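re: ur question from earlier - yeah i can do the single chain one, its not a big deal. heres the input i used so u can compare w yours
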Amino acid sequence: MGMIHVTVSIKNPSDINKYWEGLFLVDTGAYDTLVPGKYLKEIGIESRGIREFELADGSRVSYKVGGAEIEFMGDFTFGTVIFGPDDAEPILGVTALESVGIEIDPRTQKLKRLPAVKLK
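and the output i got, formated as tokens:
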């Protein structure tokens, strides 16, 4: 499967005029959304703790986490954002996709909106 990218806006829920927008890799193997930490700090997102994450190669790393409004494809959700390394590629995780009813169409390898968000 090819790589899919989408433009995402990360907003501070306390002040949605403070935001950062970038091109994110869509990664259905990742639960949460990873943003270079410097951008989260610039828009005033505060760390709420530290979590351990397993990388694709099986190694583990610890990153700070916080909460933000995540907007893409004309819709929004609120979710966990990971304070990634400042040079990291931004990643949009599956939790954000599913919460607004968007999935990857395996035939076209493009994002598609479901007729309804799954509640079950």
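The chain has a mean pLDDT of 93. not sure if urs matches, ping me
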